Amino acid sequence: MKNTFFALSLGCSLMMIDFVEAKTSSTEAPVVKPKSIPSKMGTAKLSKVKTYPKLKADSMTTEHPFMQALIQAYTSNPELKAKVKEQNALAEELPKAYAGWRPSINGTAMAAYNKGTNQIEKITSSSHPKTAGLEVRQNVFEGGKTLANTTYAENLILAGNASFTAIEQSILLKAIQAYLDLWARRQELEINRTSVRFFEFSLEQAKARADVGEIGLTEIAEAEFSYSGALADFISAEAEVQNATATYIKVIGHQPPKELVLPSDIAERVTLPSSLEELKKLSTDGNPTLQQAVFDAKSAEAGIDIATADLMPKVDVVGDAGRQLNSRRRTRTHEIAARVEVKIPIYQGGSEWASIRASHQTAAQKAIGVRTVRRQVIENAIQVWETRYASKGRIKRLETQIKAGETRIEGTRQESLVGERTFLDVLYAQKDVVNARIGFVRATSDFLSSGYQILGAMGNLSAALLKLPVQKHNVNGYAEEVSGHYIGWGDVPSREEIRDAAGTD
């Protein structure tokens, strides 16, 4: 009788395992819809779990959920819009610097009332003199300050352009990571859901077998331990899905879709470096954060020339034209004059030397910053490269492990029928497969994310490269426009336009 019940119990266990395994062997990208666990999971219908997600998506058109997420992140992110306005403000430094090459024209006007008394003749008189004039001043020499100001402004704008590129990459990378993290968390939730159901059923079977003396307290305790652990993992996975969803909404600006389709590997569309050494070289050449540091250092060097120019003579050519009217004498005087003014700084209280010393310190600090950023760029390049190829290797190993684990489960079940393996061996084998599946999902997410991170390290990740149908921001266009204004007049946005640019959430 005991043997008969044992066979029936094992048969039920085999059917349950077969059902679970059949539901977890698909190779397509999973569609995960988190739900709460039914109170009796042993009798609940199992959701379809697809274990082996494809690394190649069927389509990467703009309608793909992944592409839609990137489009939404790019168009809704306020940081990118604010950076455009910041860069436009920086662009105005260039016409301000050019102003040093151009003449300045000033008009003057004066009206006065004078009253006086001649003490000898005891005569009181008054007058109402009026003057008007025009001054034209052209600087000829000021120690190279205008040239230094121009160099400073040009490098400042270039640094801002690099900063804009870095922010654009950061927004896209955050969106990519948010999408893949949510995809992975949903996968893990569904894997843990199936695991809970399996171990709950195993616990029920263990109790039934214990009632007839087939197994002892140790097996029951192990079954309870496995079920409780699986349930705890499920609860944690459910919380991680909620956290990943919140991050997705924050980064993307929209609710995530019900289905998250795995994107294709970026290497299918873009050629990635063939070696780590090539990646390090490309990163040091094109990384926008490093470029920003380099241009900031050049601006600081120009700052030294600006400060030093204050020690040099200043030479201006000045032309004056004036007219004076004296109402008392009823006379009108016209005057035209030209002169050369030379201003030689002798002593300014030491402020000019303080400025020179400060500019040298700033330039040194910026130069050190370049070295620091270069090291960080190289370190990041190494990390993303190792992540990519380590995760690629993990995917292959885990895929093999999963298949081997499934074979192991089947063999263990068969051996348990003839008494060569125990009930616990089946539980242990199932745990190993669950862990391997979760590891596979995480490795897949890391692999896909690292491809985009490599592009970012090189400074090549952009909306244009990803072919996103969004309005590209031309940060150079505004600088080119305002630098060509010789007189300086241009369109000025109204306060209403400024408020509209801020938008609303």
Q: Would you write up a description of this structure?
A:
- Keywords: Cell outer membrane, Membrane, Transmembrane, Transmembrane beta strand, Transport.
- Belongs to the outer membrane factor (OMF) (TC 1.B.17) family.
- GO terms for molecular function: efflux transmembrane transporter activity; porin activity.
- The protein is an alpha+beta fold and 505 residues long.
- It is built from twelve helices and six strands.
- The chain folds into two domains: 70-102 and 142-310 and 348-502, Outer membrane efflux proteins (OEP); 103-141 and 312-347, Outer membrane efflux proteins (OEP), CATH 2.20.200.
- It has a four-stranded antiparallel β-sheet, with no helix packed on it.
- Helix 3 (78-91) packs antiparallel against helix 5 (145-211).
